[in-house]
Amino acid sequence: MGHSHAVSGALVFSAAAPFLPPLVIGRPLQPGEVLVGVLLTAGAALLPDLDHHDGTVAHLFGPITRLLCRTVARLSGGHRHATHSLLFVALAGAGTRAGVARWERGLTDGLAFALLLLAVHALLPHTAGPRAPFRATTVGLAAIGTACVDSWLPGTGAWLPWAVVLGTLTHVLGDCLTRQGAPLLWPYGRRFEIVLINRTGNRFETRFLVPVMTVGTLVLAWLAAFAPTALTGMAALTGMAGLTG
Q1: Alpha carbon of 92 to those of 61, 82, 198: distances in Å?
Q2: Residue 232 clears pLDDT 70, i.e. is over it
Q3: How confident is the model at residue 240 (pLDDT cuts 50, 70, 90)?
Q4: DSSP structure string for 77-94
Q5: What was the pLDDT predicted at 125?
Q6: What are the tens digits of pLDDT across the range 57-88?
Q7: Which class for 100: exposed (0-12), middle (13-18), buried (19 or more C-beta within 10 A)?
Q8: In Å, how far are 126, 134, 141, 147, 158 from 137, measured between CA atoms?
Q9: d(Cα 105, Cα 242) in Å, to the nearest integer?
Q10: Gap between the Cα atoms of 204 and 54, Å rounded
């Protein structure tokens, strides 16, 4: 389900936030970047389902997004074909990186808005379920988040491609846990699967897996965003106490 994919993307980013950024951009993320990155990766985790005419993305803007998803499905071979492969993950990351290098803030802000829109739509509770159309609050919250990225997080473009890679990769691997799996090596047709979820949207997914991933995301995101600062502050206070003593 789209909600589950979004939560799993958020969880993976939260787990990777303390370790991956120093390797790929040479610095740790600021607390604000961690929190925004959780949402951006949650949105990116929905991108492979651009090939699903009845998924969360398709219902975002009604007929417009349904037409978009049907078009992507035709071009990619149908649901769970090209967009559910490692090739798609690599192209999504490389395309984001090239776009940021070419258009800088314009591409960063535009993609941030799109991913935040998807994340908010998937994560907020909807009384009509995952097929609910967008609400004005969804667009408003995505716009506010994009304004924060533009005004206070100028370094977002440096790590945005990796958020896209983590999100799309998490989706593809997550689908490998369900029946029909995913063609990781597309265009090679073999599907990879380890069936832990017999039917998407079942009780195991909605009542156990999603709550556990949500709690894990909150804990890991807090640790990634604030624990290093707290530890640094404690070390500084300890050092000052030693000097005065």
Answers
A1: 22, 12, 29
A2: no
A3: very low
A4: TSTTSGGGSHHHHHHHHH
A5: 66
A6: 888 888 888 999 999 999 999 999 999 999 99
A7: buried
A8: 12, 8, 6, 15, 29
A9: 46
A10: 22
Q: ∠99-91-15 over CA atoms, to 5°?
A: 90
Q: Dump pLDDT digits (tens) for 198-212.
A: 887 788 888 899 999
d(Cα 161, Cα 99) in Å, to the nearest integer?
9
Closest CA to 116 of 15, 6, 12, 217: 6
CA distance 196 to 155: 38
Cβ-proximal residues to 206 (8 Å cutoff; 6+ apart), any chain: 1, 4
Number of helices and strands (H, E) in the chain?
10, 0
Q: What is the CA radius of gyration of the chain?
A: 19
pLDDT at 231: 43
Report d(CA 163, CA 170) in Å as an integer.
Answer: 10
Residue ranges covered by each domain of the chain: 2-236
Contact 43, 167 (CB under 8 A): yes
pLDDT grade for 128, boundaries at 50, 70 and 90: very low
Q: DSSP 3-state helix, strand, coil percentages of the chain (rounded to 5)?
A: 70, 0, 25
